[in-house]
Amino acid sequence: MKELAMSLSKVKEKTPLIQAITNYVTINDCANILLAIGASPAMCEATDEAYEFSQISNAVYLNIGTFTKEQELAMPLAVKGADEKKIPVVLDPVGCGAIPRRIDYINKLRKFGKIHVIKGNLGEIKSLLGVDSKVRGVDSIDDGTDGVEVCKRLAKKWSCIVAATGKTDIITDGEKVCLVNNGTEMLTKITGAGCMVGALTAGFCGANDDLLIATAASHLVMSLAGEKAVKAKEGNLPGTFRMKLFDEIYQIDEAAIEQGGNIEWL
Ligand SMILES: Nc1ncnc2c1ncn2[C@@H]1O[C@H](COP(=O)(O)OP(=O)(O)O)[C@@H](O)[C@H]1O
Ligand SMILES: Cc1ncsc1CCOP(=O)(O)O
Ligand SMILES: [Mg+2]
User: Is ligand 2 within 6 A of the CB of residue 25?
Assistant: First the structure.
């Protein structure tokens, strides 16, 4: 737990610059959550800028939730630019379970350079591996069966870190597995909780060398902040919950992680 907690302090010390090419439903939430945790977001997706900007960033966040032509062309440039400078890339394959052409695109994107972390809901992660899964558009309605095994298989196949969100988040490099048991169902009652975890993951990866710890920590921070936000006055209502979530992300510290974290290593 100590390592996860310390990775938060690294974010605050370094203020990593995060290039995000992300969907227009939750782009503002992703920028705000990165600011709240202590990172510096820049939503830089123009094809004429994506390559250069990736090279001055500390991490790149790619999210295909509202997949525009501009983003389709900019993402390979950002991946190539990041790869040349060994900058970590985090990809959220939003909707790939419901829209198969997104899987074809991700397979092409991987040829432009390393994608260090794939983070999706469990339905999306299963879909990437070609395993039967239950999704409804951008949401997972998967019952969680075989989650750990599927994540390990994808992580080994693509030599990357895989994180699958749900009631329990699963984070693995293909060997070690971290389960994050914190969270609240209220996180599923606002749009963008998954996108925001992805943005936070880029923030943590931009400030920490150990990307497995960084990814586990970002998931834990989001789940813990959700638990605290739901306890606020009217925090069980989506509007208040969303606002309180940002406040809790802003206030979370090492002590809160060590006291409240409920994780298991397999
Ligand atoms: N049933 C649940 N109980 C507690 N936390 C949950 C639950 N479902 C999802 N979460 C949390 O909500 C966040 C978003 O996950 P999820 O809803 O799976 O992603 P997405 O929004 O991409 O579909 C994660 O932090 C996850 O841990
Ligand atoms: C509703 C919606 N439609 C396209 S992207 C998007 C946001 C998805 O956000 P999340 O995956 O975090 O629920
Ligand atoms: Mg999602």
Answer: yes
Q: How many domains does the chain have?
A: 1
Residue closest via CA to ligand 2's atom 8 equals 192
Q: Residues lining ligand 1, CB < 6 A? A: 121, 139-140, 165-167, 169, 183-185, 187-188, 193-194, 197, 222-223
CATH of residue 260's domain is: 3.40.1190.20
Q: Report the alpha-carbon distance of residue 95 to residue 115 in Å, rounded.
A: 18
Q: What is the pLDDT of residues 171-223, one digit of tens each?
A: 999 999 999 999 999 999 999 999 999 999 999 999 999 999 999 999 999 99
Whether ipTM tops 0.95, in short, is yes
Binding residues for ATP: 119, 165
The parent domain of residue 100 ranges over 2-265
DSSP label of 140 = E
Q: What is the pTM of this model?
A: 0.98
